[in-house]
Give the backbone structure.
Amino acid sequence: MTETCLKGVSRRDLLPPATVAAMLAFAGLPLYIHAPRYYADEMGLGLATLGAVLLGARALDSLQDPVIGRLADRLPLRREAWALASGALLCTGLALLFAPPGWGEPLPRLAAGLLAACTGFSALQIALFDHGLAQAAEAGGGHTRIALWREVGGLAGICLAAAVPSVLEPSLGGALAHSGYAVAFAGMAFLALGGMRRRWLASGRSLPSAGFMEALHAPGVRPLLAFGFVNALPTAVTSTLVLFFLADVLKAEAHGGPVLLVFFAAAAAAAPIWARLAAKVGRRAALASGMALSVPVFVWAHALGAGDIVPFYAIAAASGAALGADMTLAPAMLAARITGGGGQVFALWTFLQKSALALAAGVVLPLLDLAGYEPGAPSGDGRMALSAAYALVPCALKLAALPMLLFMVGERRKP
């Protein structure tokens, strides 16, 4: 099962969970990025209404995460059934969300689809994080390596999801192409969960004496959770607004898929580099470097206007490379501090990450509506507000998160 403590676990044991991470990320791209645009353009929902529904659904989804985590820790020996049920629920939610526009009323469909998809997503993601924690416990280390494989697998899934529109849209059109996501995901879920058959582990089985409160009070866990929430806000804002920015500021809506592909491919390519840097200077210093890199790169986006798609590709590549540090090192820092109760602690992590998404959708979209921004036909003021919200607000949030990392989160030297 294991190699050395420095290497953690073998590649054959790292590949199946990386495939599950790819499947989850494949679902996450349309769920968190395409759904707002789809319901604004194809389903005709106004931004204020859309923002309110997204905020409500995601807030409810976030609140249920601690309950899901508690259940996960109480059912460590039934993780296989847990994963299969979670995958089925996620498939159902995506099918409901991205069914053709005429199939049901938009508001109840959006609310029910989001709740089902996000519940399945959370349950499976918590199981996957906890599986990695159990792998590291059995191997005596390897948190960064396990996180690297999981996050690179996730980034590969995002890249695949970003490439799907270029295949589906020419033949199916915009609305039906989104339905194709749900069908493609169902096939991917079947393969990924089949590859994990009889492999699921749970940290509760490896560390029976340590509970949730002990894990939560472990040195550095609570400051890291607080940092993780603030650090998730910039990506939540840009994820919500990127397609609007491309369409109405750059006038380059057709580049949505390729830009996302460049962004996440750069993150995947950079993740191993950040992991090697972390081995030399520590996870905290490496993560701080990635965060600092992202700020000047993204400020540049505010200066762009119609037709500036080539510079935006450069911004996507550089900011994606910086994201590789966030996605790989922050979860590894958390895992290295947990002594048990992993399902519940990672439930709090996902709760905070999704709370950031809820705030981004529920606050930024209505504020843009008040500023006069209207998708598809923005005024000059509306475009300026969108540009500032997309480029400057995330930079300010990232600058707020950086001192939290440097002064609140201590380094812990653990493989």
In short: The radius of gyration is 20 Å. The CA atoms of residues 55 and 235 lie 16 Å apart. Residues 1-8, 206-210 have pLDDT under 50 and may be disordered.
